[in-house]
Structure formats: C-alpha cells, structure tokens
Amino acid sequence: MISDIYLHIFDMGSIFLLMNEVVTVQVKDILPHKYVLHRIRSHRLWTFPRHRHQQVFEFYFLFEGEVIHHFDESDFSMGVGDFLMIKEEDFHSLSGRTFDFFNLILPLEYWDSFLSSLNLRGLFESSEKEGRFFTHFSREQQVWVLEDLERLFLYQKTDYGDILLSRFLLSLASELLGPPETGSKADTSPVTPPWMRTLLLEMDSRKIESMTVKDMAVLSDRTPEHLSRTFRKYLGITPSSWLNQQKLERAALMLEHSNSAVMDIVLSLGFDNLGYFYRLFKKQFGIPPVEYRKAKSLVPHGD
C-alpha cells in the first residue's frame, strides 16, 4: 500500500512517473528551474517504493530520526545530520519511522556544470562512501543546513530559489573543504570529511590519556563502525591505532622531559599492560622506552 506521504508528493506536483512498478525521477519535471525540494516526515512506519533516476541527482539531509536506503547491493542507514547523494544509476527504496528529512533533486547537467566550473569534482568524490557522496554535519553545521534548505523549500520554482541553490551548494563545498589549518598535530587535509576534521582538532585539545575509541565515537556523533571505516579510508589506520599513536607521542615527551618511572607513565596514559606498551613503543620509535629516555632525556632519571 502506498503511504500517505507518497500520495502527498504526488499532490505537490509530482516529478515521479510510475513505470513497471519502478518510480522514475525525471529531469523534465524539474526544468526550467534548477531543483525540486521535498520535505518528508512521518511519526509511524513509512516506506517509499523502489525507484530510479533519469538525468538527475538526489540529495537527502536527515535532521530527525533514522531512514534506511535499500539499494540493490546493500542497505544504508542514515542518522541525524547525515547528508547523502544518490547516483543517477541507483535503484533504491526507503523505509523509516519517526523521521524528518529534505530530499533535494537536481538535473544531472546542472550538477556536472557546477562541479566542473569550480573544479570541485575531486572534493566531492573524496567524500564518497560506497561510491556515493556522503558527509555528516555537526550539530552546529546542521543549523545552517536546515535553515538554507527551508529557504530553498519556500522559494523553489522561482528565480530567487535558483540563486539560493547556488549559494547553498557553494556553502556545502566550503564546509567540505574547510579553511587551511596550521600548527596542529591533527591531520586536517581537505579530503577528510568535516566531522572528522572537527574530531581530530577536538582530540588535539583534550586529555588524550583518558580517551577511548568509544569516547571518540560519542564526540563525533558517529557509530564505532563508521568511525573505523573513515579512519581506515583517510588515515590508513584504525581509531584505536591512531589513539595509541597519540598516547605514545605523549609518552615520548614524558620520557624526555620528566623523571617519572616508565611504569608510572604507562599507567598515566591508560595502558594496563607494560609488555604491550613496550611492543607498541618500540614499533613506533624503533627502540624500547628506557633506551629512548637515555638517548633523548633532558633531565636526570632513575629508570
């Protein structure tokens, strides 16, 4: 049975055409303007039928609840603050309960022109997940995204709305790129997602010795699994390995600049196994902690 929201989309001036039980999103129903924007919400179980895209790109921004995209090859779950692009060749259906999201649909030709004119294709492709553009906005970023989309919704199918669309896409690119960072230990390369850059900078200012991977997941508002995939993709290591590297760097500084016993340093950094710490330290610095201290220490020591 087709949901009430699905019927409501038809009532809004549908851009959907039912063909052989597959809904097709078509570019001809958007033109002559540059986009169509739907706001879809439900407080009960909801599904949207399997559909495909014809010369258009779809973007989804979820700001309440959870929605699952059922692609032919896998399912993709969106959480609050997630922003996902659906490829032209994708077939997918949706399901969810108690959610609120915006669905932005652009002509493929307009999207390609936007990327090419500003040389942004590599930026957006660097944020792809399973071949689809994906990013997560922090709570602070969600505020402006929601405000911009609400304005786009209000002024769609007007020349003013088309201008607002260009501004929104530029703002999106700006958030992905971010300002250049200097003097930070954290890797804030433009190719990393905004939420990850924020996390690394935040971790750089916190007491790293008390942090765990679970703390990092909470701080970034991502699941541990998503955190792990992203770290592997952009840094080539797991979150736990990255966290250990930061702690080992802290240990090296303490060995150089303090006379604390190695065991005290190990315990202060959250390690509960001296042998494990020694193996990690030697792997990162090439020599055991005691030898490192003898070679680097600036203060008397008694280890």
Automatic annotation (TrEMBL):
HTH araC/xylS-type domain ranges (all copies): 197-295
Coiled coil: none
Gene Ontology molecular function, alphabetical: DNA-binding transcription factor activity; sequence-specific DNA binding
Signal peptide range: none
Entry-linked Gene3D superfamilies: Homeodomain-like, Jelly Rolls
Pfam families in the cross-refs: HTH_18
UniProt-recorded name of the protein: AraC family transcriptional regulator
Organism: Oceanispirochaeta crateris
Lineage: Bacteria, Pseudomonadati, Spirochaetota, Spirochaetia, Spirochaetales
